[in-house]
Design goal:
Elements (H helix, E strand, L loop, with lengths): L1 H34 L14 H28 L3 H24 L6
């Protein structure tokens, strides 16, 4: 019973790592755009930056989850590891790009 609990704890730690890294990449990327804006337009409102600072890291989080899922799939099904890595990176960049579009829609992405 203890070994099963330890295994479950280890598997949740492994999934957390790529998801947190993806969210961190998204946060760093969107912070560059949000915090370098000098004079935001008044029609955006005072708290215009909250939306992109939430949506883009969530997109990175989902991209990291997809990366983890593909890594598990490649190790269990013996699928070619470089192919799954390249595919998961392409999907990660696509999801992050869509997150940036959704986060900045109506403000910087107009």
């Amino acid at each position: 019973m203890t070994q099963n609990n330890n295994l479950r704890t280890q598997s949740t730690n492994f999934i957390k790592r790529p998801m947190l890294i993806g969210a961190g990449v998204g946060l760093i990327l969107i912070s560059f755009f949000v915090f370098t804006t000098r004079d935001p337009k008044p029609e955006w409102g005072k708290l215009w930056m909250i939306r992109p600072l939430i949506i883009v890291p969530l997109a990175g989080f989902l991209g990291g989850a997809f990366y983890y899922w593909m890594a598990q799939l490649s190790s269990q099904k013996k699928i070619n590891r470089p192919v799954t890595l390249i595919f998961s990176l392409i999907v990660f960049m696509f999801v992050l790009w869509i997150g940036v579009i959704l986060g900045l829609d109506g403000t910087l992405w107009d």
